[in-house]
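Exercise 7.
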Amino acid sequence: MACAPLRSNINLSHIVRVAGCSAVERVICCGQGKVVGKIARDGAEAVPVEIHRTLAPVLRTLREAGYRLVGLEQTTESSSLHSYRFERRTALVVGNERLGLTEDILELLDDVVEIPVWGLPYSYNVVTATTMALYEYCRQFPHG
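Solution. The predicted structure, written as tokens, is:
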């Protein structure tokens, strides 16, 4: 799983906690991210966290390693999370809390999925959306 630079270490820490619950093998974050152990709980010890300056080189490396790059973002071309079929070797890519995934990052992705929203605001918080996407991935691969 790869994260664009997040504004909040609290959000990153919650994502690491969810990653632990979902048996994610590692979380790659960009920018100045730091994991708060009290928030991430066991995820802080169970999930390796890598910090990189920028996201694009990380995504290219993941693609070369055989991962399908799936962004979590609302676009005119995105698929609904309800009908999307993940591949086993998927790297979920999540964006910044305010900016989402930028155009240059979207161009590097294989697929983009979105979570339907029926009310306001028009999108879920980055932690909530990541949780839903990881849960759906785990639902599709219940035996790990």
